[in-house]
Amino acid sequence: MVVLSHDSNWHGCLELVYEKQEDSTRILRAFNQAPLKVQRSFYPESKAVCHTISLHTAGGIVGGDRLNQSLQLNPQSRVLMTTAAASKIYGSNTRKAIQTIEVKVKEKAILEWLPQSAIIFNGAIYQQKMRVDLARDAGFFGWEILRFGRSARGEKFLRGEWRSQLEIWREGKLLWGDRQWFPGGEETYNHPHNLGGSPVIGQLIWFSHLDREKNAIFLDRFQTNNRGKGEFGTTQMQGNSLLCRYRGASVAEVKNWFIQIWKLYRQSDFGETAVEPRVWL
Predict the structure, then answer these.
(1) Residues 237-278: pLDDT tens digits?
(2) Residues spanned by the domain of 199
(3) Alpha carbon 224 to its chain's center
(4) Does pTM surpass 0.85?
(5) How many domains does the chain have?
(6) Are 29 and 18 in contact (CB under 8 A)?
(7) Fewest CB atoms less than 10 Å from the CB: which of 7, 10, 126, 214?
(8) Pairwise CA distance, residues 116 & 229, whole Å
(9) 6 lies in some domain
């Protein structure tokens, strides 16, 4: 097990405000505090969609770290947010690492929250809270992909704790709340109601303007056409939203599935051909 520590832990901060200016989405205001920062904006699709790549310059999250991210998308702006590489959450000597993410998406704005995968090292103690507040006609498409333990080295997540809290709100009404807790241990690692011996899990959630008929067709397509070694599940929820979950052994498998869904979402909601961020390639 790798255990890292700092004499003085990181208290990182990233605050971004986006605005649509004519036909282009730009960062209006930005503030960062190490180890969080962003690269310059990219526009591989059009000026309307701002691709933002965030960086953790310290290389990974350590017990005792406190990270805060705040995003605001002003009306009609469109942002794709991803990470430069897989995140690493290292083992801890009893200290908890905490990350808090707050997002506000205003009228007719769209956020695509598409981070690369995260590796939860054995012994990590980590808690993440994410809250997304949507205006009445705003949209959100997001995913999370996690690997518990460096399984390529035979490591399992047998000590430590991972907690996650995700809330999606629209106009003060809770649309989706998801709390997950995974204590490290052989029993929970192998229990069929937890990982079932599979080290990789993924969750995708999509709040769009699809009507019921289109959403049902979309859901049926992914239930019948998807094949792989892992377990795949899709659920249509209230409010024209879609939830997808994965449990298996391959980050590549779940990422490829999620990218398929993302590309169909772009075609369905915008009539566009999605362009993958270059850091994914």
Answers:
(1) 776 788 999 999 999 999 999 999 999 889 888 889 999 999
(2) 11-280
(3) 25
(4) yes
(5) 1
(6) no
(7) 7
(8) 21
(9) no
